[in-house]
């Protein structure tokens, strides 16, 4: 094996990309509402502030004072109604209660049907992550095909095995994250 990197597959880069798919999945999971209050459930909410769509956390402070309550302290009084409307239209199923510049968001219990929908959505997110990991695997295998003539058959087989092991390990992590999230969603 020579010292220039044209005749080897960068396994670290492949692993980083696969880890990126898992990180993206965890971020998606954080936005899924379970029966518990969490500040991250408001991450997808954007507010039309000063003529631009702005993430909610850039116009307000979000706190979780208790397990079934989120408070949103809006910094600019003129944006309170806009924030209220954005949260109501976000699809989270939350109706804010206004108290000056503070919005109180009581988190309702999830009914069985909504829990099943969320668990199914979590499954879809996990499948997208698995597809992303498989795409990285395919890229790695393509890199390997390009250099197959320059490296020996045994070395090519070793790379193939390592790429497959990375893929299997990452998919196992995705499945574990999915199982944990679905368990959390179904918990009453």
Automatic annotation (TrEMBL):
One of its GO terms (molecular function) is ribosomal large subunit binding. It comes from the Bacteria. InterPro entries: Ribosome_recyc_fac, Ribosome_recyc_fac_dom, RRF_sf. Pfam families: RRF (PF01765). It is found in: Cytoplasm. Belongs to the RRF family. This is Ribosome-recycling factor.
